[in-house]
Structure formats: structure tokens, C-alpha cells
Amino acid sequence: ADKPSGITVISGARIVTMKGDEVIDNGRIVVTNNRITAIGKASDFAVPAGARTIDAAGKTIIPGLVDVHWHGAMGEGGLIPQQSWVNYASLAFGVTTLHDPSNDTATIYTQSELQRAGQVVGPRIFSTGAVLYGAKANESAVINNLYDALTHLKRLRAGGASTVKSYNQPRRDQRQQILEAARQTRMIVVPEGGSLFQMNMSMVVDGHTGIEHSLPVANVYDDVKQLWSQTQVSYTPTLGVAFGGLDGEHYWYARHDVWKHPLLSKYVPKSVLEPRAVRRETAPDEDFNVFNAARAAVELQRVGVPVNIGAHGQREGLAAHWEIWMLARGGMTPLEAIRSATLNGAKYLGMDKDIGSLEPGKLADLVIIDADVLKDIEKSDRVSQVMINGRLYDAATMNQTGATPKTRKPFFFETSRGQLSPVGFPRLIDDESEHGHGVCNGHQ
Asked: What end-to-end distance do the CA atoms of the chain give, in Å?
């Protein structure tokens, strides 16, 4: 595993630690190599000799975001890009850990290992690999007894999995066999109810690690709250693609000029971003059922059901913030919404001893935001710097800064005929580019 060396001190910021409701004004964080070694008020301890210092006065620092339901391209046809704009965009928005509950097994675990070794830049990558698909298809995972379930889980475990997705196994005993196999192999099981409320409830009763995707009902009542609150099952509503009506992704496209976002537009090719974002559908606010789903998630959290963010990979990095904002619009306080985006997800993945909060001994994953997000959570996307594993990146360029600075290479869509973009990298200038031709694909 990659591990930087040196001491970094970040001072002056408002620090939201996620240690309870702790918020440290004019705080200081000391990072030694890749872990936090001290945190507190700037007046409490001196800057260690030889440390590099970062002035974060007026900014807010939160733990790195943990997106527990993230689907995305990790490679294609056996090829892994050495520099993926998808990874860079996600990291630039502060997503330092992602979990993909459905991807090509070989591709995503290869990408995960390359990231962990420092050979590619991106968030920490975890995944179920290929789902245990119960429907009749080429990729079906046939499970008719405990032996079948153990065979599949041991196979995935050997490939690099610590989690497994139980998907569309039609019979309850099949789903229970996967759960028992997971207990024996010490794996996490994340299911999807396929927009079937009764299946969701049986998954809660049977003790899955969490329920992924929103409940397909407009309201939850005391029967659901009393049942669910007596379990340790978490909830990842993936509000961007919420069931039951108009979803969150369509809302933010309708209300914001997403293609003009100053950070997103640096890392997502125009040929990808503009066709999706420029001409968009709209509807009155009351038609967006997603806010009912958000309100239901908040009601469940208030009775003890931990809620996580899962942006579903809908819009690289930015959609994680949409999830936070929608939970806030559903009734969460900014502090509660940040917890859903950080510590709750870390606990869900069984990784809270290392990530999810800012405490001595934990890995140095954090986000520096140029705003007071405790006053206005919908400014959380104003990321200025991101630290992952003790390495600090400037969000506007994704150049690594500090003791071992490293300039990011240009992406394929920034390169043509030596023309320079505003960030100092070559940009795409092509006579035919306005007509959809020219350089439009390929990996760096």
C-alpha cells in the first residue's frame, strides 16, 4: 500500500470531526505520513518542526465523503486507464471512499489494487464485484442450498471482495442462505429490493447489512419504524434515482446549470456532460417524489436507523453532494447530513476504525471547503482541497501539493494542437468538434 512521508499541519479552519457533534473553531490538524496524529484548537499545540503548513482560515474541514452506492466505469475490454477522469472528478468533490455494489469483478478489483498501491489516483475503491443475480440470465448465480451460497461467496472473497450483493434472488430461503454464507465467510451483504416494499421488509427482518435503494412508498408509518429500529440494518436510499416518482438527479439538472459547474466542468468531457445537462426536463417542486423519500429516510434515522449516502454514480462527485442536500431538504440538520455522508457510511462498510471521522490514529482523508457548510449545507460542493491517505490535492487542478508535488497530466479531451486551457493544460480545439466529430473518445 502507498504511504507518503512527512508532516502536514492544516490550521485555522472550522473542523467538523464527526466525534459526536464536535465542531472545533480555529482548529488545527496534524497529519504524520498518512494518519492524523493530533487535532484540536490551533492554540492548544504548536506546529511540529519541519512540518509543511496549510492556512485554511475561513474554511470548513469535514471527513472525506464515503459514497457507499457508486456505480462507475473502471475500465473496458480489459483495459484500465492510467488516469481516469471519472476518478479525478469524484476525488475533486471530496469522495475519498466509494463502494460499488455491481461491477466487473476482475476490472474493479484491479483498479482497487492499483489505487491502493498509489499507481492510479482516485478514491479508495471497494466493491461487491459481480452481483449474485437470481434472475435467469447469462450471469445468473444459481443458489439452491448453503453449499451453493458458500461457493459463490468464497469465489468473490478470493477475488478481493469483502462485500457481496444479493440481487433478485426470488426465494427468501435463497437470500437467507447467502446471509448464512456471509456470516461464515465474514462478509457484508447488501441487497436490492427491486422496488418491492414487501421484499425490502423481509430483507430487514432477515438481517442484511443494509437496504439499498429507496423504499417504493411515499410514506413510512409506525409499523416500519418500530420494526426497522429494532435491527442493525442500515439504509442507503440513493435519492438521485429514488423510486416512486420523479427523482433527485432530474431535480438538480432542472434547477441548476450543471454543465457550468466550475469544478465538474474541469473533469467531465463536454461531450459527456453537455448532452445530459443542457437540455433538461422540469416539473413543479411538488411533483418530485424524491423529497418524500428523503423525508422518510430522515424519519427512519430519527428512530435509530443509520442512513448513508449513495449517489449511484449519476454525476461524478457532484451527485454525492446532491444526496447530502436532499437529506437536508428532507429534514436533516447539516451536521446530520454530513454524518450520513461520512461516519455512517464508514460504519456500514465496517471501516470506521480507519475512516469516517477526524480523530488521532485514523487515516488522513478530509475535505477542505471554502464555505461554512453548517450554516448552508448546499455550499458543500465548494471544495478547495482534498486529502486522501495523507496526500493533498488542489481541487481546481487535481495537482498534488506539499512535500512531493506532482502535476496531473492532461486528459485526452484537453489535448490538441498545443492550445492551453485556463488551468494551464492543453485543451481540445478541433475544427469539427462543434459538429460532434474530432477527438471524442479514448483513455489517457
From this structure: 24
